[in-house]
Amino acid sequence: MSRQTGINRVVEFTFVAKEKFSPESIEFSARFVSPSGKIINVPGFWDGKDIWKIRYSSNEPGIHTFETACDPEIKGLSQQKGSCSIVKPKKEENPLYKHGFPFVKEGKIVYADGKNFFWLGDTWWMGLCKRLDKNGFKTLAQDRINKGFTVVQIVAGLYPDMNWYDHRGKGDGGFPYSKDFSKLNPDYFRSADWRICHLCDCGIVPCIVGAWGYYIHWTGIEKMKRHWKNIIARWSAYPVIWCIAGETIMPYYLSDKRDQDKEFQKRAWTDVAQYIRDIDPFKHPITTHPTHLGHEQLEKPEILDINMLQTGHGSHTSFEDTWSFIRKAKEAFPLKPVVVGEVNYEGIGEACREEIQRICFWGSLLSGAYGYTYGANGIWQINTEKKPYGPSPRGRSWGDTPWQSAYKLPGSQHVATGKKILEKTGWPDFVPCREKIACEKENDCIFAAEIPEKIMVIYAGPNAFNLAGIKAIKGLSPGKEYLFAFVNPKDARIVKKFTITTNRQGEWALPKNYWSMVPVFQDWVITLKKK
């Protein structure tokens, strides 16, 4: 049994069991040996009837050999030997296969070859359900990759905002499990396979959320581990990021014992998180989607590689939580990259429009966050044009905008434009420097970060050019020239630029009526580059 594939691309091996056993009672895996002698044990998965599969990938060219193991021993599954040839293609355009899978190194998220990875995510919590058909999935993915998104946060069947076995949670192949979670439904996961693979082939990393946090009360810890083992067996050979759970310690919406539930969920998900860390053969980055701060969701937060935040949906009233949560996360774990994983979905509550998206994106990235996930109300729950998602368990709907309209909302383009601007600045080495901006009064919508002696980037919200204007920029090199530019955060155009010269103290004072120098009364990105 031999196969060939490209570097970092998945190769699949199929095995047929010659004896009858309950799939839930079988432990099936393969021991791979690379040309350099590296050994990894890859779990296999049941794919229906008598079919079992192993998926493998590697960034090491050459012949990789394997031998399977099965407990109990079963003919057709035990001691099967084979190999695969990993080849380096002459030309590879997909960054996930060209540069290798993302991982965390020294507080940054990078590709395997060390190239910086810019986390610009989108929120498709229910993107594996059948309400989003294949053509719709392709449409969303193509739009996001065209704009420059790199991550999609997506839930593996145990969805938020519903009870278990709610008809809205069906995939193309039905529900992922029997109602008591004792029997896996491979038809569900086969339809999900195509979607996960399609994202990767588009160059988008699936950030796979195992379940919403409260499901662990219904599954119990051992069945949740079994669920995660199936996820890892099916998808760990792909360039993915693991998200342990959504709103990890938030009890079920109608729970009447919330404190007890939170305590149990924190303990239980810590156990599951360690299990994921132990069995994942490819050692993908691990995060968890929190109620507030990721590191507060587990008893052992050191398990997490990425510290994800959720900071509210209150439009401008969520701003201060966003910036303060970033500071708290950085103080708690300075070497864990911070990702703002949910804030102010565009259109939620008929609010949080594109200017709010720009403020949240720029405020986050210039305050020390390493990545940012956008969301649009209507996409996360997959509203359709004919039938909105409907009410949550509490009885209220979050909105009825169909995804076909929501993906065209301008905020998604504006945050993607922000990524485009930052990628030209050396953003991974930015140090927040808000203290270098002297203002008429404190203003939550003025942010700054810099690479000292090279570049400073300032984001100034609309009010910064009105009564709370910027008075001066401090902490620059004394008596030096800088190129000052106004960059439109909506389309990345440099609208106005000129040269400034700092004084002996390394400051540059803006004219008293400096707002008159601003091209248009809106928010702006300012870049200062040392000449």
Written account of the structure:
With 531 residues, the protein is α/β, with parallel strands linked by helices. It is 22% helix and 24% strand. It contains nine helices and 27 strands. The protein has helices at residues 95-98, 134-147, 186-201, 216-235, 258-279, 319-332, 354-365, 403-406, 410-422; strands at 2-6, 11-16, 27-33, 39-43, 45-46, 51-56, 62-71, 81-87, 103-105, 108-110, 120-123, 151-155, 205-209, 241-243, 286-287, 307-310, 338-342, 371-373, 431-432, 437-439, 446-451, 455-460, 470-473, 481-487, 494-501, 508-509, 524-530. The protein has an eight-stranded parallel sheet. Strands 19-21-22-27-24-25 form a six-stranded antiparallel sheet. β21 and β22 form a beta hairpin. The longest helix is centred in the middle third of the chain and has 22 residues, at 258-279. The protein starts with a strand and ends with a strand.
List its traits.
531 residues; alpha/beta; 27 strands; 9 helices
Name the poorly predicted regions: none
Strand order within the widest sheet? 15-14-13-12-11-18-17-16
Total helices: the number is 9
Please report the total strand number as a whole number.
27
Distance between the termini: 61 Å
State which percent range the strand residues make up: 15-25%
Major pleated sheet: 8 strands, parallel
- How large is the radius of gyration? 25 Å
Provide the helix percentage: 10-25%
